[in-house]
User: Which sequence fits this backbone?
C-alpha cells in the first residue's frame, strides 16, 4: 500500500505515520463517525485466500485479550490482501522512547516495569498465547503512565503467512531466546526476552554485541557478563534472579514469568529506599520546595522534606545524618538551584553527598530544578534540568512520577531530557 495517509481502512481514516518496524507501519487513525483516535497497524505481508482464515482466527484470539497492561485490539481486517489491526492509541510513546538505547533506568522503575509486563504476559500465557517479540519498542506508555504491552501475536501472523520468513522476522534477535532462534519458541522464551530487557535497563546496554551470526551464537552458547561487573552496587540476589531468567535451557528458568517478576521484586526489596525523593534547597527558596513536597505527598510519593521530619531530625548530628540520607536513603534527589543554593554551606554539603551517590551508581540520581541561572560549582552545565518558571508544580511532579514509574495524571510528559538539537531547552517535554 503506497502512502496510505488520507485513505480509509475500515471505519478509520489514516492521519499520519507514527511508527514503523519489521512487521509493519503504524498510523494514527480517526473513526469517520465517532471521531475517536486509534492506532492502525498495516502489516508487511500479503495474504493468500488459504491464509485468510488463519489470519481471522489469529485476529480473533488477539482481539479477545483484555488486560490493563495490554494494548487492546479494537478491530482487524484485510485491504487488497494486506492485513491491518486497529488498536488503542497510546499517546505517550514507548519505553524505548522514554529510555533511549544506552540509558540506565533506576532499579525501582525497572521493578515497576517488569511487574506490569510480566502480569500481561502471564495472562497471555495462561491463554496459551506466546508474544515472541518482547522488547521496549513494543511497550507503550498509557494515559495514566501505566505500561502496555503491544504487538501480541503479530509475529505468529507474519510467520504463518510467509513461509520464507527468517527467524529475525518473527522476533528481534537482541531479545531472542536460544530455543526461539531454533524456531521453537515457548512461554519461557518471553521470560528470557524480559530478562534481556531488564539487563539492558539496569546496565544501559545489551548483553551481546556483534554481527547477526555472532549475536545468535552468543544467545545460544555464551553467558552474559555478570550484572555486578557492570553495576557493582547491585545486590547478588538481583543478579541471580536476572541470570536465572537468562538460562540457556528454558527448563532452568523460572517456572513461569510471574515467578520471575515476583523473585525480581523480592530481590530488589533489599535495596528499597525509605524515600522516593529527597529535596535539597536553600532556606530562601523554601516556598518552592514546600509547594512541590506537598503535591508529591498528596500523590503518595515518599518525600524527605525537613518540614515533615522535625521529630526525626531533632537531636541528630545533621552533618552525618544528611550525608547518609542524600547518599543512601532515596531513589532520587531534587535540587532547587539558585543563587541562594550556590551560597549556602549546607546545600553544598548535600550536593556533594548526592554527587557521590550518582558517581557510585553511574546512573541518574540528581534531578535539578532551576530557579535562576546561577552557575553551581561542581554541577555539570550540561546536566538536564527543569525550569521552575517555565513549568508548573504539577508538571514537575508529573516528571518525577514518570521517573519513579508511578501513575500520574493524563499529560504527555517526558521528564528530564537533554535535546542535543536544542541545548537551551533541556526539558523537551513540551
Assistant:
Amino acid at each position: 500500500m503506497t502512502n496510505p495517509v488520507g485513505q480509509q481502512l475500515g471505519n478509520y481514516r489514516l492521519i499520519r505515520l507514527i511508527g514503523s518496524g519489521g512487521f509493519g507501519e503504524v498510523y494514527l487513525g480517526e473513526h469517520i463517525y465517532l471521531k475517536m483516535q486509534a492506532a492502525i497497524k498495516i502489516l508487511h505481508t500479503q495474504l493468500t485466500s488459504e491464509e485468510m482464515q488463519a489470519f481471522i482466527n489469529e485476529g480473533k484470539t488477539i482481539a479477545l485479550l483484555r488486560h490493563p497492561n495490554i494494548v487492546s485490539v479494537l478491530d482487524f481486517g484485510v485491504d487488497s490482501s494486506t492485513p491491518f489491526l486497529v488498536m488503542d492509541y497510546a499517546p505517550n510513546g514507548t519505553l524505548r522512547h522514554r529510555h533511549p538505547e544506552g540509558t540506565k533506568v533506576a532499579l525501582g522503575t525497572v521493578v515497576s516495569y517488569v511487574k506490569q509486563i510480566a502480569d500481561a504476559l502471564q495472562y497471555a500465557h495462561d491463554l496459551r498465547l506466546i508474544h515472541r517479540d518482547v522488547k521496549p519498542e513494543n511497550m507503550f506508555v498509557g494515559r495514566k503512565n501505566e505500561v502496555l504491552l503491544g504487538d501480541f501475536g503479530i509475529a505468529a501472523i507474519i510467520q504463518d503467512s510467509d513461509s520464507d520468513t527468517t527467524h529475525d522476522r518473527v522476533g528481534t534477535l537482541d531479545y531472542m531466546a536460544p530455543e526461539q532462534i531454533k524456531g521453537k519458541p515457548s512461554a519461557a522464551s518471553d521470560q528470557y526476552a524480559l530478562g534481556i530487557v531488564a539487563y539492558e535497563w539496569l546496565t544501559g546496554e545489551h548483553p551481546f554485541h556483534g554481527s547477526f551470526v555472532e549475536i545468535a551464537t552468543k544467545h545460544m552458547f555464551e553467558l552474559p557478563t555478570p550484572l555486578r561487573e557492570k553495576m557493582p552496587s547491585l545486590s547478588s540476589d538481583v543478579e541471580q534472579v536476572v541470570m536465572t531468567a537468562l538460562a540457556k535451557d528454558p527448563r532452568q528458568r523460572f517456572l513461569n514469568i510471574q515467578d520471575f517478576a515476583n523473585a525480581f521484586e523480592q530481590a530488589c526489596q533489599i535495596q528499597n529506599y525509605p524515600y522516593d525523593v529527597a529535596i535539597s534547597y536553600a532556606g530562601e527558596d523554601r516556598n518552592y520546595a514546600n509547594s512541590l513536597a506537598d503535591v508529591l505527598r498528596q500523590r503518595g510519593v515518599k518525600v524527605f522534606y525537613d518540614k515533615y521530619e522535625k521529630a526525626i531530625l531533632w537531636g541528630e548530628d545533621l552533618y552525618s545524618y544528611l550525608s547518609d540520607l542524600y547518599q543512601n536513603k532515596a531513589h532520587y534527589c531534587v535540587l532547587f538551584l539558585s543563587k541562594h543554593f550556590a551560597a549556602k554551606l549546607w546545600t553544598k554539603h548535600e550536593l556533594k553527598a548526592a554527587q557521590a551517590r550518582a558517581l557510585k551508581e553511574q546512573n541518574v540520581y540528581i534531578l535539578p530544578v532551576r530557579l535562576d541561572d546561577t552557575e553551581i560549582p561542581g554541577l555539570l552545565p550540561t546536566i538536564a534540568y527543569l525550569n521552575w518558571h517555565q513549568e508548573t508544580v504539577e508538571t514537575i511532579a508529573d516528571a518525577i512520577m514518570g521517573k519513579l514509574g508511578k501513575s500520574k495524571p493524563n499529560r504527555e510528559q517526558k521528564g528530564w531530557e537533554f535535546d542535543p538539537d536544542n541545548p537551551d531547552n533541556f526539558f523537551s517535554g513540551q
In short: The chain is about 40% helix and 15% strand. The two ends are 33 Å apart (CA to CA). Residues 159-169, 408-430 have pLDDT under 50 and may be disordered.
